[in-house]
Amino acid sequence: MPKFEKKVFCCNICGKGFSNKYTLKQHIQIHTEEKPYTCEICSKSFLEKGNLKMHMRNHTGEKQYSCDICDKSYTSKQYLTFHMKSHTEEKPYSCDICDKSYTTKQNLTIHIQRHTGEKQYSCDICDKSYTSKQNLTIHIRSHTGEKPYSCYVCGVSFAEQALMRIHMRIHTGERPYSCDVCGMSFAQLGIMKRHMSTHTGEKPYTCDVCGTSFAQKKTMKKHIRTHTGEKPYSCAICGKLYIAQEYLTIHIRSHTGEKPYECEVCLSSFKEKSSLTRHMKMHTGEKPYSCDVCGTSFAQKKTMKRHIRTHTGEKPYPCAICGKFYSTQECLTIHIRSHTGEKPYSCEICSKSFSERGKLTIHMQSHDVDKPYNCEVCGISFIQKAFLNRHMKKHTEEKPYSCEICNKSFSESGKLTKHMQSHTVVSTGLVLMSSQNTNPKWYTSITEEEPTEQLLSYNKQITLK
Question: What are the residue boundaries of the structural domains of the chain, listed by start?
Fold first, then answer.
């Protein structure tokens, strides 16, 4: 039988018992919130001198407790003890409800509260509740802006110590989590788990509105906001709203001018990492995505999907105001501005505003004296080489973009896309008709002179490629 110490010293406030006066004295400080030991570097205070000593190692970087199996080091013996259980798989604390096991009693206590729904730690500012005092402390920092953990390499601060540790891997290059399938390594466990879904193809989270499935719950929640219209992230500078924090972060760079992603080949800078990835394919010439209908190759999967809609006539993005359909989200966004009157792209010289970035770019030519791209045929100058190339097709009469349905050709892909809308069946309300099996004719609406039954029979006679 294990020997238990008698707990003869009781706390007058909560009634908890202790085996000696010293431990009781330390416990009472929890109620009085007295923290007599203060860090001289960051002013953080502690109940016990030992906790202050352990905290100081965060500033000095000292990690004197090392694992004999994997050589990882820790600032305290307690952390090393917890870590060692990851090798032995020892989890002595089990939940009586669901049989899950944990390495520490504290983690088990927090887990049990998920079954009971108990959240005893409440925020006085916004009334949110948490299962642990630690989680509440971290949450309160979202109100106060406090970020007590700083990277001693670059100085970036964090509200949570765990986030700082993950950040440090940027400097150390440490990637402790490896994929069992392809061997790729990751700095974070969550990113590795998301990566694993690319091998399994598992998408356990489904949208109740449209049925789209996702590998991550976070991605599904973000997607659902496209249906509800919820945009909880607001720009403090201009008030624009966004459905996700990462979109807001990218938007703020349009105010600050920050472009943290730089191309090592031509030194061009970008606001988004995805933009740099797309840009790099210009240097490599890589176009891994091909259209099954016409064989055209694309650098991006998104661009290929958009292109395929020129063949299918699909327009999955409806306007909630007038009911018009569009083939891309970008086109719908631009269209909605015709209802709202929004013109977010302004000329810095004359303050004229435009609903599309492309129109602003064209407008800027009227101010720009330097137009380095000259047409050798008629002498007109352009600010961009792409504008000159488009102009030259007027002289050469080159029309490389052909419609596969009626063989009509166009000088620009945008004109072909617009033309394809005339062939769209059902989704835009345009109906194909023919009194014979040849020479089809297109009507923009169903009229009283042409019965619906007749139209349907004609539609069956002609098949779109």
Answer: 24-89, 203-284, 289-396, 413-461
